[in-house]
Amino acid sequence: MAQSRNRYLIIIILGALSTISPFAIDMYLPAFPEIAAALHTSTAKISLSLASYFAGLAAGQLFYGPLLDRFGRKLPLYAGLVLFITASLLCLCSPTVEWLIALRFVQALGGCAAQVAAMAMVRDFFHVDEPPKSSRC
Fold first, then answer.
1. Average model confidence (pLDDT) for the chain?
2. Buried b vs exposed e over 94-126: b needs ≥16 C-beta within 10 Å?
3. What was the pLDDT predicted at 44?
4. Using an 8 Å Cβ cutoff, are 46 and 76 in contact?
5. What is the pLDDT of residue 52?
6. What is the pTM of this model?
7. CA 83, CA 70: separation in Å to the nearest integer?
8. Three-state DSSP class for residue 30
9. In terms of C-beta density within 10 A (0-12 exposed, 13-18 middle, 19 or more buried), how is residue 91 classed?
10. Segment 51-54 long-range contacts (CB within 8 Å, at least 24 positions apart)
11. Of the chain's two ends, which shows fewer C-beta atoms within 10 Å, N or C?
């Protein structure tokens, strides 16, 4: 029974880790007009921050896979989460749209760690040849 609870906790944690980047993408989309007004720019320029996030997400995947294999799962994950949180807080204080675009790239580099680490840990915790267990809630 305790092992079953641990498996559910692992599933919840891995699910939460894998949703960090999608939330960072989707949560601010409705605020584009307000962000543009606050930074005295157009919504088209604000949309570049979304493009830079995707670029950072793609670039980060190239680095985190080997880092997770070399240094284990925890250290790169914690470093990425600290980078993500720091960049998120700095995005709040962006004085210009250019700063926002650059910080969103850095934020994506950090958020990517959670996504890549979650996928790697799924393979660590749940093996393909393991028979499915019935779940009764």
1. 87
2. beebeebbbbbbbbbbbbbbbbbbbbbbeeeee
3. 94
4. no
5. 97
6. 0.84
7. 19
8. helix
9. buried
10. 52/101, 52/102, 52/104, 52/105, 52/108, 53/24, 53/25, 53/104, 53/105, 53/107, 53/108, 54/25, 54/108
11. C
Distance, in Å, from the CA atom of 116 to the CA atom of 18, rounded to the nearest integer, reads 8
C-alpha distances (whole Å) from 135 to each of 1, 8, 10, 11, 124 are: 11, 10, 15, 13, 21
State pLDDT tens for residues 17-32.
888 888 998 988 999 9
Could you report the per-residue pLDDT of 78-97, keeping only the tens digit for each? 999 999 999 999 999 999 99
Task: Report the C-alpha gap between 73 and 45 in whole angstroms.
Answer: 36
The values of phi and psi at residue 89, to 5°, are: -65, -40
DSSP assignment letter at 73? S
Name which residue leads in pLDDT, 125 or 57: 57
- The mean pLDDT value for 91-110 works out to 96
Alpha helices in the chain (DSSP H): 2-18, 20-26, 32-38, 43-71, 74-92, 97-125
Helix (H, G, I), strand (E, B) or coil at 133: coil
What is the rounded distance in angstroms from the CA atom of residue 36 to the CA atom of residue 45?
8
